[in-house]
Amino acid sequence: MLTAESRLADFPALAGIAYLNTAAESIPPACVPEALAQYARDKALGMRGREAHNATLESCREVAARMVGLQTDEVSFCSCSSEAYNLLANALHLGPVDEVVITDLDFPAGATPWLNAATPPRVNLWKATNGALDTNDLAALLNDRTRLVQVSLVSFYNGHRLDWAPFIAAVREHAPRAKVAVDITQALGRIELDCTDFDILISSTHKWVLGIHGGCIVGIPKRENEITTHAGGWFHLENAFEPDRFEHTVRKLGAASFSVGMPNYAAIYALNASLRYLENVGVAIIAAHADPLVAQMETALRDLGHPPMAAQREGNFSGILAIQPEHPNDLHAQLEAAEVHVMNHAGRLRMALHGYNTAEDVERFLDEVKKQK
Fold first, then answer.
1. Are 293 and 165 in a shared domain?
2. pLDDT tens, position by position, 217-239
3. How far is the C-alpha of 146 from the C-alpha of 170, rounded, in Å?
4. Is the overall model pTM greater than 0.70, yes or no?
5. Which domain range does residue 289 map to?
6. Considering only Cβ atoms within 10 Å of each terminal Cβ, which end of the chain, N or C, has fewer?
7. Please, are residues 136 and 167 in contact by the beta-carbon 8 Å criterion?
8. How many CB atoms lie within 10 A of CB 181?
9. Are 173 and 167 in contact (CB under 8 A)?
10. What backbone torsions phi and psi does residue 339 show, to the nearest 5 degrees?
């Protein structure tokens, strides 16, 4: 991932291109399709394959727990972050007297369940200033009725990385009843996690962790067993096939309650392989490699008159930079023609740099930006 040789061996699809779009879709390492092939072989065994499926599930739970700093029984899996957030809404069963804080830098999955509830709580919006969330603006939104504060550690929109310590201190001081949900989709696998004292964390699996679609990591510390879903299903029930199953349910608590049905074993096989790949490389090493590339790109973009929408800070880097050029569609088409891949959405271009990116990728991108200017 970090040398020319390992990059070519592990990511052959990157040959000849500058791929700067991991915040949307990652390029999986070679071990991921190998894991999917193993899943197919195990699935071909029919019911006998379940033993391997479940062993891989527990293996994935172990490595996922290490990656997010939790115990194995504090981690579970859903099919996507949207499912996880809707199950969280189900667990909290909020009503009109309750309040929720969301941010305008959040992905819709974490922000919209509260707006779509049958009896929606009051939703307070924490707005960014100059592309960043300022904790000084948060206290006024918090009170004894606040039941949930939803944030992203790194914003999908502009790459802003939340300054966690003052944030969590403000919530615990001004909203003592609130649960804190943190979306780490744009952080896990790219930066060393610095979020502590959360109540639930959620991450998709097809971005920086280099897995595939159809997976989601859910982490809930055991002290938060009250965050237990009320959803129907079977995989999360202790008595799903017991004689009393039609009289009442016995739910597994906390994180385990979020796996309500048959696991997506294909996504689990892929995630188990990709997380172990990242663990072997080391997230700290990935950050040490990629952060200077982010700094290089940010400095050059500012010099070219394209200041990023969210500034990066030493010691608090993310992997994402976003700009709003005057002619985004034209620049995007130019970049695509040069095999430089970035995200183009709603007038902004978003660049994402992972451990498989290089200084040459950055220069290739900047050369195209210079041509347009």
1. no
2. 999 998 777 899 999 999 999 99
3. 12
4. yes
5. 4-20+282-372
6. C
7. no
8. 24
9. no
10. 60, 40
